[in-house]
Amino acid sequence: MSTIEAIIIGIVEGITEFLPISSTGHMIITQKILGMQIDEFVKAFTVNIQFGAILSVVVLYWKRFFCFQNDNVLTTNADQKTTEPNFKRFITFYLKLFVAFIPAAVIGFLLGDYINILLEHVEVVAVSMLLGGIILLFVDKWFNNPSEVQTISYPKSLKIGFFQCIAMIPGVSRSAATIVGGMTTKLTRKNAAEFSFFLAVPTMFAASAYKFLKDYKVLLVKSNLSILLIGNVVSFIVAMLAIKFFINFLTKYGFKVFGYYRIIVGLTILILIGLGINLSIV
Fold first, then answer.
1. CA angle, corner 261, sides to 171 and 265, nearest 5?
2. Is the pTM of this model over 0.85?
3. Distance separating alpha carbons of residues 231 and 185, to the nearest angstrom
4. How far apart (Å, rounded) are the C-alpha atoms in residues 188 and 166?
5. What is the pLDDT of residues 86-131, one digit of tens each?
6. What is the C-alpha separation between 128 and 248, in angstroms, rounded?
7. CA distances (Å), 150 to each of 178, 189, 205, in order?
8. Planar angle of CA 40, 44, 47, nearest 5 degrees
9. In angstroms, rounded to a whole number, what is the distance separating the alpha carbons of residues 149 and 152?
């Protein structure tokens, strides 16, 4: 992988990781467009470049993660009315993220090898993009009645966690799956999106750390390590900008634009495959 390819993939990851359009799907498609040789390092890079995106969430929401800031969404009404110190609310914040993280941790561990096989099939990405796009066209109509009380209980956290597991299918957006999961619990689009960002931290960190430990011999080669660092720096910077844009856009306009985009991309890939154009990345 060249430095230019690492920068391009970093930009794609930064833009798409927190938008409901599938970062993995876009990185797979980008790799094919660039004509990249898909070796063990490229596969590991595709996962470990998420470290940069993770860091962007922590930096943007650092008060939530480190400063015991009261969170009206992740604490219950009783928590908000109590005189208990913010430390209790801080612990509640992390416990609810942990509960939401459990389903992906278990299912990812059990089906990891099968998921890796799916990553190599562009047609799976295309169908997922298309079907996900159709769903996004109707999400705002289906869940347009958020609760006046914006709190997340432990059962709600677990439910959102199961929605996140759908994103293990390449082309299904983790962001979209968890935001829609949040909206089914009557969260507003904004609060569901922010919880999705928070949940991304343990989920993406675990996936990246597991892949790093598995492929560290490849990643720690001096030339590969510099490429990985460049990609993560780029994804970090771009993801910070993308998160700010997405929150504002989603709050004002909803999901339809992203739905149409996914449909166009999915149909385009399927048409190219139907015309006999080889899009395989193996």
1. 55
2. no
3. 36
4. 21
5. 677 778 888 999 999 999 989 888 876 777 666 667 788 888 889 9
6. 26
7. 16, 11, 27
8. 150
9. 9
